Fold these 2 entries.
Entry 1:
Amino acid sequence: MELRTLRYFVAVAEELHFGRAATRLHMSQPPLSRAIRQLEAEVGATLLDRSSAGVALTPVGAVLLDEARALLERADRVRVRVAAAAGAATLTVGVLGDSTDPGATRLAGAFRRRHPRVEVRVRETDLTDPTCGLHAGLVDIALTRRPFDETGLSVHELRADPVGALLRADDPLAGRDRVTLADLADRRWFVFPEGTDPAWQSYWNGGEPREGPVVRGVQECRQAVLWNGTVGMTLLAHPPAQGLTVVPLGDMRPSRVVAAWNAGDTNPLIRSFVRTAVDAYRN
């Protein structure tokens, strides 16, 4: 069995859908289907039940899934250890001004325990680049938040965080249990510079064009509200600075933490990073 074919099988087994698996693998569906049929011929058993209702693992397929996952992880560890021994194992991680996130802290500890000889380089970016340098080729993987232009990227969601309106503590709305976007419609908002990813700008402006002071970083957002009485969105879990408060936004979808990397990048450290991140953010 080839490792590549096993990766194909794991993708189909996890997605239980050939189309989604092909998208995840950045390939078309016909060669994926042929590869799985060839694998079934090699093992001499049916691995997947295909019907009009969908795709399901057979008992033999379930066994192979467990073994394939373990084998692929072992193969990745071999590649990483060899690279580390040669002094060539590095990973550049982009972070979006959220390096104090407890999930990221757990991830850093777990990844270091798993790969003690890998050098991790961290590149922190401001709020104007939600891909943290991925599109510019400056990082291998990013811990960031949706939405943004995902062209050419693979993205795995790690957590969803509720958001709220960032207000001055003496704002007329500050005492409410929650507010809506309509409550903030006639207010000035802090905005990101021209040229910022449109999907990213739109989300943090509540889906509407806004006017107000231009900001680039988290502290600038807070200072814009404190000094100008403008409003904006922030994470409910982020404690506001003195003189500010956060009121839950009842009609705003949560902010989603993701790991993102360049599609087709076969660096085993990236796969290991994503697996470790899923566990770190789940806990």
Entry 2:
Amino acid sequence: MTVNTGIRWTREEDERWAADFELELVLKYNPQKGLADQALSEVHEMVTETGRSARDLFDDPRQYAASVAAERIDEAHTSRVDLAGTTAGERFTGGLAMAGFSGVLLSATRWVRNGTWVDVSWATLTGVSVLAAAAVVACVAVALRTAGRVPAMRACIGAFAVGLAGGIAAASLLPRRELFSLPAPVLLAASAVVMVGAHCLPDGTADRWFAPAPGGDSEAWLRRLDGLLRGRHGMSAADARGHVTEARSHLGAAPELTAQGEFGDVEIYASRLADGPGRKRRAQRRRVLAVGLLAVLVVVAGSDELRSPDVASFRFWVPLLFLASCAADMVQVWRDVHRQKR
């Protein structure tokens, strides 16, 4: 049975073909939701009617995925996604779900190690609250980057840094005298609610939260173009500025023109400018930066365990495994770059 569909294939070779097609289409071309299922349903119908194999009818699954992507993935979809193929809403809900999942793991670990009741002091209450707020702000910042709202993203990054430093300072300086005790399952349930709530929140609703107000003059259109090129599509500030300057010069030559009337929808125009061979390099660079930042955060959070290793404790192995995963991811990116240069 093919992943994500209820289609049942009578021949094993057709099932393998369908799996290869779906994997290629979803991972390489980031189609709109439902397109892979729709295409596979059409393939299954043809295979059933003719009695021939999917490979006989549609040739190589990777080539067919490329043709489906070229014919049926429209610009309205591709212009809304970033270098990883996700929208601003998907970035926010995905980050929030991951934060909730991390809270579930930490709460469960605390429950297993220290028993049912958790002692709460001013230090833990303030520190955990500030760090939780910082995690939400970080999710908002990533979503704002995908939405192309670079100034707002920078403000959130500053708030995240302040919150992170404040949480660490609170945990270190505030009194540790017990205020009250809280059942560990309550913390686990609260984290689970965040995780499930983020999963159930429609991505389209979250997308609207981060979309800028419509309308505006040509200067607003050009500012939006700059933000989309730098935030959503990962262009350098110099390259984005060059495209904006070129568009502004074109409009300046004919004052009666407007940016919207001359270039059309700003998201589609930005997507066209960002398309090309440089897109994959920008995606790889952004991936390395994200993995590097994660590795730094893991080192900071697990510095005590890593400095005083107790190989019998899982608290030593968890950050070590995270760092090993980050290193493996960077090696994979390096191999991809090396293959491209051949």
